[in-house]
Input
Amino acid sequence: MEETGMFTGVTLPFEVTELLTAAMDLLKIVSPLVLLGIAFVVVPKFIGLINKSMTKGGSK
Output
């Protein structure tokens, strides 16, 4: 008994390795921008935490 699927005989214009390479290249471009965005959110919180600990006499 032979199985016939919807995608029998379909050929794609690219290989799997090309798809993975393109995905990794996109990740190389996008990831620094995401990290920069996270830094803009997190760093002010750290600065506030440090200032707050110093002004209230953190260690007595």
